[in-house]
Amino acid sequence: MRLIVDCGATSTDWCLLEEGGPRTVRTAGFNLAHTPAASLRPILDQAARQIGPGVREIHFYAAGLVGESPVDLTQWFPGASVEYASDMLGAARAVCGRERGIAAIIGTGANTCQFGGGRIERQVRSGGYIIGDEGSASVLGRLFITDFLKGQVPESLAAEFAERFETDYHTIVKNVYSGIAPARYLGSFAPFLLEHYQGSEYVRRLVDGNFCSFIERTLRQYDNLPVGVVGGFGNACKEILLRLGDLYGFQFNRFMASPLDGLVPYHAV
């Protein structure tokens, strides 16, 4: 049996390709670069217990995975062959299959690559939410909260925001500069903004500007190939991206909230 693993910081999906169809187990997420071994073991124990024996092939995709993995999955799945790969390669396989194209992860963060059908040909560095990540939910949140603190948000929208979130200056600064997950905190404002996309010219300019920056500073550095998008935020903004893509001459051809939607058929062949 084949096992596809989509590992994120918040959650990890373990999708087993069985004869009766795919079966997915969800556990807590982890970051291989930062999560202590003592914290990894109970998560892997849980996954192996719920999946059961018989796994012979594993494809493990994780953010920030460079070189050899610090965890040996064969300790939990004896006899299995394991491919360790980055989440970017997983996204490219999910939306491009075995064809050339551009893959874009658009979620809390943003990352892209040009895929050659078998390998990543080129990658414009993301930079993260402080010095990059254009198009992401975290950057949208950063742009908005900056305007909010400086009194640049329309009064009615600012008042509604203040009713729904803790908006005192100390709380905002603490979460951004010393919080556990600053990017996730900033990205948490994105759903609120999307609720007002149709009714607020200010929000439309902010959202569209974030995606225009993504297209101009990142996508334009690649060949003009079809663009596939992976990630909850990008999937929620499908119609916006399709419209802006037309303006810039880019064809967004696939959208999926989870890379497993494309990785299951990719590895089922």
Q: Would you summarize the structure shown here?
A:
With 269 residues, the protein is of the alpha/beta class. It has twelve helices and ten strands. Among the domains are: 2-97 and 260-268, ATPase, nucleotide binding domain (Nucleotidyltransferase, domain 5), CATH 3.30.420.40; 130-208, Transcription Termination Factor Rho, Rna-binding Domain, Chain A, Domain 1, CATH 1.10.720.160.
Q: Helical element count?
A: 12
* Principal-axes shape call: globular
Percent strand: 15-25%
The CATH class of the domain at 2-97 and 260-268 turns out to be Alpha Beta
User: Which structural class fits the helix and strand makeup?
Assistant: alpha/beta
In the predicted model, the low-confidence regions spanning at least 5 consecutive residues are none
Quick check: average pLDDT? 91
Order of helices and strands: EEEHEEHEEEHHHHHHHEHHEH
What's the CATH topology label of the domain at 2-97 and 260-268?
Answer: Nucleotidyltransferase, domain 5
**Biggest sheet statistics:** 5 strands, mixed
Keywords:
269 residues; alpha/beta; Nucleotidyltransferase, domain 5; Transcription Termination Factor Rho, Rna-binding Domain, Chain A, Domain 1; five-stranded mixed β-sheet; 22% strand; globular
